[in-house]
UniProtKB/TrEMBL annotation:
Name of the protein this chain belongs to: 4-oxalocrotonate decarboxylase
Organism taxonomic ancestry: Bacteria, Pseudomonadati, Pseudomonadota, Gammaproteobacteria, Alteromonadales
Top-rank taxon: Bacteria
InterPro entries named in the record: Fumarylacetoacetase_C_sf, Hydratase-Decarb/MhpD_sf
Amino acid sequence: MGASAAVLGHPAEAIAMLVNILSDMGEELPAGSFVMSGGITEAIAVQPGDSIIARFQELGSVSMRFVE
């Protein structure tokens, strides 16, 4: 289970942090850049035979099964 608030309290905070770090380095984030704010769940190890289902509120779900 995850929530976007897990990314520094709000996903936009992660983007603001990125922009500030780039600015400190004399760089910038070009307009129109695609930026992902970060993972909202912990990484989990999978093994052959495991099945995973990801459900996204109002978007639907996706599932996968890991094989050898």
